[in-house]
Here is the input.
Amino acid sequence: MTVQYFTEIAKYNQWANQKFIDWMRDLSDEQWNQPLVSSFPSIAETVLHIVGAEKVWYDRLMKVENPVWLPFTFKGGKAETLDTWKHSSGLLIEYVEQLTNENLNDMIAYKRINDEAFSQPVFEILSHVFNHSTYHRGQLVTLLRQVGFTDISSTDLLQYYKLV
Here is the structure.
């Protein structure tokens, strides 16, 4: 894997996230908070989980000593959540663009949310972050349909490649 690869995937992540952000802005507060059955009990909590993960992993990559896990502390509404998501996607691109191929093997030491010490190379963390977001965006498609939002288009990587 190369920095070029991760730059492309980070830009894809931002593009896909932005599509979801645009869709979410059209949701009513009722749809945003409606209780649903999935990994998280609402669209709001699913989005906050994605945002929180992108942000905490960015902070870990930046070697922030005690990064904040947003789902435990965030008090904002839909607009603030979506703005934070957009910002976190941009930060990941900025991070990847400053890397060299050699940096991809740098070890990052961090503490997990349960306070367990862990370390991984940058390329594993980036692979996880982008895969994690894709996984939960897939869940969001199903959740959106459950609340009656059907104006959904493809966010497949192949679709992104056709556009760039």
Summary: Strands lie at 107-111, 117-121. The two ends are 20 Å apart (CA to CA).
